[in-house]
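To close the chapter, one final illustration. This time we ask the reader to focus less on the individual chains and more on the assembly as a whole: which components sit near each other, and how the overall shape emerges from the parts.
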Amino acid sequence: MKPLIGIASNLTVESSFHLEQNVVGCHYIESIKKSGGLPILIPFTLNHADICTYVTLCQGFLFCGGGDINPLLFGENPHALNGSGHVELDQFHLFLMEKILSANKPVLGICRGIQILNVACGGSIYQDLSLTGNSTIKHMQSEAKRHFVTHKVTFIEGTILQELFGHEVYTNSYHHQAVNKLGDNLIASGFTDDGIIEALEMLSHPFQVGVQWHPENFIQVGNAMLPLFERLVDTAMQRVVFEGA
Amino acid sequence: MKPLIGIASNLTVESSFHLEQNVVGCHYIESIKKSGGLPILIPFTLNHADICTYVTLCQGFLFCGGGDINPLLFGENPHALNGSGHVELDQFHLFLMEKILSANKPVLGICRGIQILNVACGGSIYQDLSLTGNSTIKHMQSEAKRHFVTHKVTFIEGTILQELFGHEVYTNSYHHQAVNKLGDNLIASGFTDDGIIEALEMLSHPFQVGVQWHPENFIQVGNAMLPLFERLVDTAMQRVVFEGA
Amino acid sequence: MKPLIGIASNLTVESSFHLEQNVVGCHYIESIKKSGGLPILIPFTLNHADICTYVTLCQGFLFCGGGDINPLLFGENPHALNGSGHVELDQFHLFLMEKILSANKPVLGICRGIQILNVACGGSIYQDLSLTGNSTIKHMQSEAKRHFVTHKVTFIEGTILQELFGHEVYTNSYHHQAVNKLGDNLIASGFTDDGIIEALEMLSHPFQVGVQWHPENFIQVGNAMLPLFERLVDTAMQRVVFEGA
Amino acid sequence: MKPLIGIASNLTVESSFHLEQNVVGCHYIESIKKSGGLPILIPFTLNHADICTYVTLCQGFLFCGGGDINPLLFGENPHALNGSGHVELDQFHLFLMEKILSANKPVLGICRGIQILNVACGGSIYQDLSLTGNSTIKHMQSEAKRHFVTHKVTFIEGTILQELFGHEVYTNSYHHQAVNKLGDNLIASGFTDDGIIEALEMLSHPFQVGVQWHPENFIQVGNAMLPLFERLVDTAMQRVVFEGA
Amino acid sequence: MKPLIGIASNLTVESSFHLEQNVVGCHYIESIKKSGGLPILIPFTLNHADICTYVTLCQGFLFCGGGDINPLLFGENPHALNGSGHVELDQFHLFLMEKILSANKPVLGICRGIQILNVACGGSIYQDLSLTGNSTIKHMQSEAKRHFVTHKVTFIEGTILQELFGHEVYTNSYHHQAVNKLGDNLIASGFTDDGIIEALEMLSHPFQVGVQWHPENFIQVGNAMLPLFERLVDTAMQRVVFEGA
Amino acid sequence: MKPLIGIASNLTVESSFHLEQNVVGCHYIESIKKSGGLPILIPFTLNHADICTYVTLCQGFLFCGGGDINPLLFGENPHALNGSGHVELDQFHLFLMEKILSANKPVLGICRGIQILNVACGGSIYQDLSLTGNSTIKHMQSEAKRHFVTHKVTFIEGTILQELFGHEVYTNSYHHQAVNKLGDNLIASGFTDDGIIEALEMLSHPFQVGVQWHPENFIQVGNAMLPLFERLVDTAMQRVVFEGA
Amino acid sequence: MKPLIGIASNLTVESSFHLEQNVVGCHYIESIKKSGGLPILIPFTLNHADICTYVTLCQGFLFCGGGDINPLLFGENPHALNGSGHVELDQFHLFLMEKILSANKPVLGICRGIQILNVACGGSIYQDLSLTGNSTIKHMQSEAKRHFVTHKVTFIEGTILQELFGHEVYTNSYHHQAVNKLGDNLIASGFTDDGIIEALEMLSHPFQVGVQWHPENFIQVGNAMLPLFERLVDTAMQRVVFEGA
Amino acid sequence: MKPLIGIASNLTVESSFHLEQNVVGCHYIESIKKSGGLPILIPFTLNHADICTYVTLCQGFLFCGGGDINPLLFGENPHALNGSGHVELDQFHLFLMEKILSANKPVLGICRGIQILNVACGGSIYQDLSLTGNSTIKHMQSEAKRHFVTHKVTFIEGTILQELFGHEVYTNSYHHQAVNKLGDNLIASGFTDDGIIEALEMLSHPFQVGVQWHPENFIQVGNAMLPLFERLVDTAMQRVVFEGA
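The assembled structure is written out below.
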């Protein structure tokens, strides 16, 4: 039996009638399916009881890329370079992440997802890479295809990511913000040459991980990034087996 | 405990990177929540085993508005007025609907959803209303707001819809196709003045229903269309109770 | 002292934030001012008591061009060629018009305004000129400037319009609908060569008038259309004087 | 009987024929109505006598958000970062504000409105926030919805705003200019953390107030900002009662 | 000494500020220069005395392609298929053409120019080719380049055009209207296979000619169409010589 | 050694500088490569000697989809429904095709390519499918993806296509024109249910074939259409071997 | 008899067919007509003999606003902030200006025209106002209407402009470049408060003048800027009288 | 017999279906033809064996302008100002260039082509001209036409370019990157006044040359840039003769 992987939906507005929609990119879903998980999409809600039910229902979770988090949610005034966002979506994602962490269930956060993970643990975000003072690499690539790589990420010895990818990996890059102050119990396990944090891991947990790049965009051209999703699904599977026991 | 209502996702392509996405409008989700159901979104898949798992997982189902069904799927050559579509999405929706009907679970089909219901039962679709020969009413409204009504729907005595709404109701209207030949065991329970079928019901089933208009767009301005969603959720609830017994 | 002329606002949606707005074209306002009236704009409302207060407050009224009236409001199903509209704006305009007529106050209806006048009196509208069966003249002009004329209007002997303009006048033309069945107590006082009604007048009233063209667009290039607005203001003035007596 | 609240119209140009229009957003009007006032819209005019009549006619006034004031009107040359404007609209608004202040009637200025209030009293405007030298907060938000908040405003003890809202309030923010030199008899009663003036009040007057944010955008999601509009209407009501006495 | 060829300007509106402009395509001007004439552009005016001065000043004239003539100017009501136009430009062009014809000076009318010639002589225009009842050829071509030919034109024996081009010529084609009733003293000298008039000539005059296609677009790829412009300039030159004598 | 397959380029205009470009879609090229051929692109030219050199250089040829052929090239006047085209590109393609046929070399024509094949042999084209009088199927599909099929093509016994695909095949469809009168020595080997010719073959030649659909769009999702390209390359290979012998 | 005023055309490219056109704004032409001149438009040419003929033909000249002059023409390499231009148009305008100055005829240069005047006399241009180092005023206004003023221009005692306008005048402003090194025999007669040159005059000549603002945009709202055009026409008239004598 | 000149295709994505295409501008092809070469277009491929076959097939080669090279390919991290690119196209072009250089065949690299030449030889690229620290000239021109010149290039004595063009030449300019570290055996033979390298040549080879400007854009207005293409073709011709010997 496949583990149920809950993917947190984003919100967007379609252009013909300006109706708000829940949306999840197919690449994320295909990555979960290719790794042996059964994906369902968790729709936006601010109902805490419903969110707790979703956390109970699924064995693993995925958070996708998206807009900027409202800085008031990590205790800062907004900077002029902070991008557009949706504060209620932030609250949904943060509450969902907190409940997942409390329930000790496996989770993978991608791009905005790594930032949700960090803020849910009490960390903060650089509202724009220019505010780091020393970012010298292009992190918002404009290559012809989403899976073309743009920079290297180097991993720390002894981390899950180093175990999965070895010393370094070349990745794509589509972000203008990054992790600033680390959240509680998180360690930074991957960096670009200019010192930007590209991966986070929860101390002493088998798989509560965030990455700043987009591994899901590689799903149709090869298996280079598949280990990340497989580890999520495998960890969730162990829980299913355990629960079923 | 709330019944789990599975909503079949649609597919769209976002404009910045041309990435395919699963998408469900918020109005559909809000209507389920307001009626006491717990919504999850079922992502696109052609994996039959996974689809069967989704059918087992949920107590009720909702199909939303969307593109035109490929006419080859109901045995016709495409007409020049047939609109754009996605044949693999059609296959996903039709297989999911067939499994729901086999499992005897409650389902509501809206707009494209009523057409999926009809084709899944062996019925056919007018590829464009002009092909009916006698449609005289504007069915693709251009009113300022989605919840503004455009025409009347009259219901047949003794049907579920007549029980819910009485003799007639004024509805919005956003479709250029309509039910043609009825699928097996379906009855037409609602019509506009020009004879277009606006509602279908499965004979002898508590709630396998399709409507051609968009009841979900009324969710933020009142409860006029709520009975439709409440009946779906209530029927699903009875199944939960029964299953839980 | 100038008579207060209430102009019924339209609704539009601005493009940057999709916020709804009340709007009245400057040409309408300038025409009232040039004719000696003091214009105020009556904002959209469905509050009947407030509408009655507005009717009491002003001595004369102006209704402007705009979208199509919802055909359900004059007892017809919508035809595919009926254009976009806003049924709540229709209700505001119709109720305001009815109260003005009841109060016996002077009013000028322009384009959509003549149609509001006719429907408020129980008349009906051709949902598209093609439905008249015999309209042969271009009524939606595409000339370089709004005040360029496109066709002739011929007036009936003994009407107010014939008194103001003589036997005929060349006008601009921006409409795809027209008066069909006349409302109670209204007479058609102007026609184009293809028989389309271009002007209405209330029997035995000094100035309750509608015109299908856009006289306000001539305000900046001359006084040809000024008599229409002056008659409105003058009639309103007599009421002021009388009331003040 | 409801007090008459005159709302100063803005000007815009519609896109199909480039016709100039008077325009007022529905949120402003709904806020007045929800607070018990009867709104009318005062159209653009440079006729001083007519403006005086409008001031006499109404018991309270509202000025809305809009374009930048021509700097020549507060004695400065235009800076390259000054935005687009309409000098005749500025003259209409400034003259109307001056007459209201002379008449001692209550008035609320929102966004551009607070700037009109300040310039009418002899104050000046920062032509762009970058010219303040120390503005560090994003004041032109790009959140998904107009009522999402972006920063805090802290109020001065003993002011009307502190009485209405307490020590602080979280607000939305859509401006690139701000009050610089205070106009005569005005006090700054609200500030953001970077020292930008967010609220002005007239010394010793029950309600001549300006705010830099957009309280009207909250009207459809709750009553948090309603006290501002209610105080305007209540103060106007007292004048009606007094006048009627 | 080169003869002075006056080219009647058209009017257009530039997109950034919506300012009206006088405009003449370079191909027209280059064709005159290549044929030995000295072109000047006659700007739009309704001043009859000035127009007469322009006619005196120049030895030959050219009228270019452009918008549709207002049908009221040739005694018809506008048809729905009549395109956009500028009635004051029509009046300028018609008066200028009449004065040229009175002065017996040479003139070439291209596309709209042939229609101006015909109406100035009392003729009429098919407001759309569909109204001819028998036009079967595409006259509004969509070829990749302006000088690609689309149909044949056959000339009448004994006409100027037959003298210049022989029995037939292949031409480009960009028009939706055409000459209907011939103006006084004009003869039709060229036709397409579906009977549409493609060329007009004034009886007993050395060169008062109109063509429905665009000979100027061939100027940069060869001399096929040059005889038309050379004949205009040569006829004008004879006048210069005569006048100078 | 791989056979050299010459692909005839099309022309397009890029949007930033309006520069004309030679262009060939990657799907065509990938189809040749996957089938074992070595593709080169033959650029547009009207130089007959160079075209003959290209024909000598390559062992097989491919013509791609594109714009409409100028009807003058097959002896018809242009119809209003004929689309945009480039007569010089037509001349390049027709001359190249004629030389290939004279040289007896294998060639595959796709979409516009089948039409070039037919006209090069003296055949004609329906300028629009509506002119066939009996086309009832949608031939310009609007499906979400290029490789989604829209209709069936049935093949004639004993033809190459029947040998490659069997009795029938489901194909995509993107054309508004079709083969009318057959060119010399060509036979129609495939039809849709409404009688439109979907495939042509040269009598007694191993592979001079045209198809009206787009087989190259299937190259990335499977091998269903590969036999067509493989037969082209294999026939070309036999010639290489023969020539090399 | 009216003096003939030659207006140098600009070049633009129309958007439908990318055809190059000669163009002159109506405001320039109306200003000449209102001042008693007879305008003709001089089309683009690089033929020096023809240009000399144009100079002989007219009694006065006007140069309009337009694109940036190629810096190579005043001896500088192009700076990144230099805008788009047309070097052949520059050569036409410069040669025409030089011949006018040689012929000692009156000329008015507006915006780009003042820059043509300066370069024709050997002067240079600031390629962008930011390169002046001390320009603090917005010179590219974004006001709602072209005739709204944005800054003051102060004139030098004893100049023609001071004679026409007095000590100072408020003007509109639409330029990002300005006069740098003065051309031979030119004096700067007007400045903004930040020291930018806004007017030039030729020493000891009755009217060879350039202004950096757009006086022609005031023609439809009043006579404030008319003296500039009247002086041009009057000076030209004296020449006509003299020549005619 | 003409030498075969292989032109390396670029990749683009057409806008209607987002299909990837091989593309080469006509100006490049016309320049080769005018110089006596026979052009073929080499389509994109990563198959090394096929690339070697293309190198063997042709006697000379041309590389065109295009997107930015991925900096990882010359050992740098991407800078934020690096533009969009296609890393697989880079790999195709670099491998093709390397094989050409190994085969000692003549090649001309234009714009992106000079950068491919430099990187293939181990050199590096300034990712943006602003990173040179001393570029003061506009290298991305915005002139009305592609062949208008914008700056001077000065050549080094004794180089091929100096032999072809003399001491200096005025060129157009469309690039934001430039050669940084020279590749092995390359010399810089041309510079702009701000020291940017505008031409490269391979030491001791008759014609392996790169230029940073666009000589092909001059092909339709004259022969100024023709020597560059003629030298490529002549050198290739010598090889043909030699091979044929």
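The mean pLDDT of chain B is 96. Residues 4-244 of chain B form a domain with the Rossmann fold fold (CATH 3.40.50.880). With these observations in hand, you are ready for the problems at the end of the chapter.
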